[in-house]
Every structure is written in structure tokens, then in C-alpha cells.
Amino acid sequence: MTTHTKPGFRPANPNFSSGPCAKRPGWSVEALKAAALGRSHRAKIGKTKLEQAIALTREILQVPADYRIGIVPASDTGAVEMALWSLLGERGVDMVAWESFGSGWVTDVVKQLKLADVRKIEAGYGRLPDLAKIDFDRDVVFTWNGTTSGVRVPNGDFIPADRRGLTICDATSAAFAQRLDFSKLDVVTFSWQKVLGGEGAHGMLILSPRAVERLESYKPAWPLPKIFRLTSGGKLIEGIFKGETINTPSMLCVEDYIDALHWAKSIGGLDALVARADANAAVLDGFVGKSSWLGHLAVEPATRSNTSVCLSFTDPDVAALDADGQAAFAKGLVSVLDKEGVAYDIGAYRDAPPGLRIWCGATVETSDLEALLPWLDWAFAAQKASLKAAA
């Protein structure tokens, strides 16, 4: 139900961006006072903090003891590219994509790496492709959670335990909010600025023993820049996975990530993080279920993200507009909410269908989402009135 009456209360925190995402509840710059600023990351204090970040990541994400965890440059993008350029080419690869970032990895493998044996298994926004078509004797690259479509894989059951190829999973909007089945994943990547609300520019690379074996037994036909090199003399550079980063990290960002990890641990670890994201997504889902103008972009409920929730317009007048018209309508609606200071950065991703994208990850308070909902109705009514006036 839409209304022209401006709501009388606001979210305490209007940050609903899908990345960088809201800081943890109660965060302030005081949380960073112990940062090792002005010190070498190779000094004992710097290396200790990097080791702590890795150890806490393992504990909270429940990463198996024999998997390596490394802090790498260039956010999740850097971590994915390191995996693609270092591991692919030993056998054919199936590229699985259903949104912008997955499609970007397809482009990199086909047009940049120019691998000869590539199969594309794709679907449009709102749906998963047919996962039964994947051949796991080949290497497989996919996103766990489609950040720009709000479509995720519900679990890892589609991946066989006895696969011959490697599974390379971009999990940047899933880690810390969804349960990753590490037994089915050989490479997992994510960035700090998503579910835990950390800062950008740093990525995480998690390798299974099978991935390490590939790195040590296979040498790509192409040269690798220093920033991508994970081996030396045919052996894994173990230091990368013990806090000896390839290049200089920001110790301020490291401190912020450690703070977020401590917060996650303090509230109950992975179980609590997943529960918070689920509760947030449920609030938004309930609103959408009663809405006369909004629907989920993700068609199947089982595949709907609990973090990057993507919504499309179902109102007949708005849905009848062409893509440019719908995009303009969405931009106007988002702008109104921004100017009111009740919701920032909730427009759909630039390559996605016009609509809204509202982050429901663990650092968002459910009470803030509940406070946002009447504002969505109000902003829609205002935009709809403007649309009719212009007709």
C-alpha cells in the first residue's frame, strides 16, 4: 500500500549500500586506535596483526585446517584474477554466470586469457542457469551469490565430492552471511567491504589442498606479473598464507577488519551472522510480499539472496515503461530517499534491470530495515505522482 504521508521516523543508520556496506553496529574510529600505523607490515607487530586476521577468518568462517588463507591485493577482483590466471588452462573450464560479475569472469577467460576450451553456462538476471549442465571433470568458475541479481546457489549439493576439476568460487557477497560448503570448493574469494562492513582494496584467497596441488604441478603458458604469483620454484609461497603479503597492505584497514571479526565472534560467530542476514531479508521479503509495486528480481524463493536483495517494479504503469523510463523512475525514487537521508545507494547495479538493491547483510540492524519500509512506499507514491503529472 502506497501513501503520500511522509513517515514520522527514520532509520538510525541509512547505509544500505551493497558495497562498501554498513559498518558494524556501534562502530567508531576509536575501534582503530590500536592500528599499527607508521610501522612496517613486516615488523613483528604488523605480521602479528595479519596473522590474527587470517586466524579469525578461519575460526569464524569455519575454514578447514588444511585450507590456506591469504590476504591479497585489489579486493575480491584481485583474488579472483589471481586464481583464474594461476590455475586455469590445465584442462577445459565451465564458466557459470547469471549476473554482472560472473559475466565479467567469462569475459576475462574468453577474451583475455583466450583459453581454447571454454564452455559458457549462463542465465539472465533473476534465475540460475541449469547447474546440471556443469561438467565437474573440468574446472568450474562461478559466483556463490550474484551481487547484482540477488540470485544465489542455495547450497553446494550440485558439486560432486569426487570431481576431477577445481571449483573456483567468487563468494564476496556470501562469506559471513551464507554457509559455504568448503568441502565442495577449491578456491574461495571475498573482500572485506561486504558482509562485515570492512574497508576496500584487500581481498581474501582461500585454497584447498587440491588447489595447492594444481599450483605446484601446473605452470600456465602465459607470464604472470609479480602481483599474481603464488608459487616460486614450483612450490607454493607459504608466507603469503602466514601474513607475508605480496604487497604492502593498509594496516588501518587490517585493524578495521580485525575489529569486525572480533564483533562477529562476540555475537556468536557464523551462526549469528547468518541469522542476522536471514532476519533482515525476511523483513524485506514480507514487505515485498504485500507490496503492490515491488517484486523480487530472483524468481525462485530458494535462490534469493539474504544480502544483496534485488527488487523490480511490478506496478503496471511503471512496468509498462521502457527500460530508459524505468531507469529514470528508479533514479528519481532513489534520489528522493537519498535527499531525505533515509536510504543511501539502493539503486540497482548499472548493468542490472532497473529497480532497487537493498543490502541486508549482518551489519545492518533489522530495526533500520523496518524503519525504511514506509519510506519506500512514500517515495514510490511521490514518484508515481510525478510520473502521472508528466503524462
From TrEMBL:
Q: Which class of enzymes does this protein belong to? A: transferase
Catalysed reactions listed for this entry: O-phospho-L-serine + 2-oxoglutarate = 3-phosphooxypyruvate + L-glutamate
**InterPro entries from the entry?**
Pser_aminoTfrase (IPR022278), Pser_aminoTfrase_methanosarc (IPR006271), PyrdxlP-dep_Trfase (IPR015424), PyrdxlP-dep_Trfase_major (IPR015421), PyrdxlP-dep_Trfase_small (IPR015422)
Keywords for the protein's UniProt record, in alphabetical order: Amino-acid biosynthesis, Aminotransferase, Cytoplasm, Pyridoxal phosphate, Serine biosynthesis, Transferase
Which pathway, per its entry? Amino-acid biosynthesis; L-serine biosynthesis; L-serine from 3-phospho-D-glycerate: step 2/3
For region Disordered, the annotated ranges are 1-20
Q: Which family does it belong to?
A: Belongs to the class-V pyridoxal-phosphate-dependent aminotransferase family. SerC subfamily.
Q: What is this protein called?
A: phosphoserine transaminase
Organism listed in the record: Mesorhizobium qingshengii
Q: What is the lineage of its organism?
A: Bacteria, Pseudomonadati, Pseudomonadota, Alphaproteobacteria, Hyphomicrobiales
